[in-house]
Amino acid sequence: MTTEPKDVSVDVRPKRQATVKHIATRKGGTPLVCLTAYITPMAARLDQHCDLLLVGDSVGMVLYGMDSTLGVSLDMMISHGRAVCRGAKQALVVIDMPFGSYEESKEQAFRNAARVLSETGAGAVKLEGGIEMVETVEFLSKRGIPVLGHVGLMPQSVHTNGGYGARGRTVDEWQPIIDDAKAIANAGAFAVVLEGVAEPLARKVTEEVAVPIIGIGASNACDGQILVTEDMLGLFAINPKFVKRYAELGDGIASAIETYADEVRTRAFPSEEYTYKMRGANQ
Ligand code: KIV
């Protein structure tokens, strides 16, 4: 059973920049609107509509052509994080901790997460993992680093967990995912991203976990939704089942470039309108 959309189009966002407290209070309320952003102009456009902007490590695949997120570095995240913070005035900015920057120890995680927050101005970090990350999430949360959890399908574990297929499509797969989400929330995460799971499991996790559950490919039962912006705008070739394309900007770009190429080749561009005249010349 899916949840019927309710008429909740009111803007419930705070007037100043959202904090993790604002996000946490939205459990069970108007769904949180979240998108990824990697650059300033996109962040500025999304900001007025979103509660949370995630500088996702998906940047590696979407902007750099990598075939997984594993090659993304801390410096890349910091650089894109800074760019997004320059464009975001209202939404909470959260930055992904990339693969290899937090798993070794809670101290390593603190050192790198502190760099992320102090060098970008973002309000929180996100890290992937369930029960195995409890100590780290607790350590960071108690030391001034708010953490957004990420369970279910975890792209950084693609090699150990066997691909990007949806999880929890048989009931015997449910309990570890429920346990992971609860454990991360109890350790201090202010919200948890739940990726790529069947709807009844998403509903159960949302009902049983005390903090907001932000779904991606996890049905409308969650407390909010996140998508990769380039996916929903039709700017990225890979199109998973859970992505609704709200625009086909890729087609628009292709046709603009084709026209430009034709006009350059025929000298139609630049026409007079786009050409400097000598000072004093008419027009
Ligand atoms: O890296 C990413 O973009 C993510 C998703 C949850 C959107 O982690």
Summarize the structure.
The protein is an alpha/beta fold.
Known CATH architecture of the largest domain: Alpha-Beta Barrel
* Distance linking N and C termini: 66 Å
Q: Give the strand content.
A: 5-15%
- Provide the CATH topology of the largest domain: TIM Barrel
Ions, cofactors, ligands: which are bound? 3-methyl-2-oxobutanoic acid
The CATH H-level superfamily of the largest domain is Phosphoenolpyruvate-binding domains
Q: Oligomerization state of this entry? A: single chain
Spatial strand sequence of the major β-sheet: 1-2-3-4-5-6-7-8
Reading the helices and strands in chain order gives HEHEHHEHEHEHHEHEEHH
Taking all Cα atoms into account, the compactness measure Rg is 21 Å
CATH top level class name of the largest domain:
Alpha Beta
Q: What structural class results from the helix and strand content?
A: alpha/beta
